[in-house]
Amino acid sequence: SRSWISLRSRANTSMGGLGRASVAPTERASARALPRTIQLPPRASVRTRAVALPPESREEAIDQARRALSVGLGRSVEVKGSEKSVLKRISRGSKRLIVDFPLQDESAASVAGLASEILDGITSEKTVLAFGDREACRQAEALNLANCFFVEDAVPKKLKASSLVLVGVTESQAGLQLGGSRWASVVLLNPKGNFTEKTSKLASSFDTAYQFLPLLVQGFLGSKAEGALFKCLTEDDENGEGSKWNIFLKEGSSFKRVAAQDSRPDQDELELALYNNVAQNNPLIKGAKAVKGLFSK
User: Shortest CA distance to 118 belongs to which of 191, 199, 59?
Assistant: First the structure.
């Protein structure tokens, strides 16, 4: 879990893989003004092509994460564009990317399975997968993933690899493999601990390609609202909207974007964006909590 926002979940597998969770309200009881750093988009902007919406199923989330990673690395996916837009996309490809995906549990089998699904078609024989857990490494090898190592073991120099994927590692573990100039590109998949761009100097050297953090806002009398913190790079993003951190609330069966900003929102920014929006319609709403693990294996 991320220490910047508290978690308490009870996941199940209803609604096509999207679970529910029971959370307690926070201590904040009074509405405050939304920070100026958060941009409130026009309602119609939620439907713009460049802004991806939070997924409704695990399968959709896997597909989104895989595509966002490809875009972040500067590679083309199935959606084609003009020659000029393709060259622009490749030139802005990042060498260091983060993908953070919600898991129902963080067992070795789940972590290995996630790596297999998201990296399918993206890695090559020149890619090393370094796992933060030895058992997850063994599970990945059982899934026929190549070049798997425990992150604290040395990667043989005779292995002519130029890209690195760090899976489920802590900041200190990541530092063991990131010394020198061996790796042309590095991907962090589900990093552990308080490993965010705002709290870690190492993480600040990475760009987030994909993150989906389901949220639940709960009030005094049991009133609830679903939401999400969501970032997903998209291939057809010509105005930079796909690079923003978006905060969504669910209205009926669809998501509405209620705030967006260039940097990852901290706890206050996230909670206030959700609180102030929901409070307009329900003054009993008190706070928000993050919920991970809404997708089952």
Answer: 59
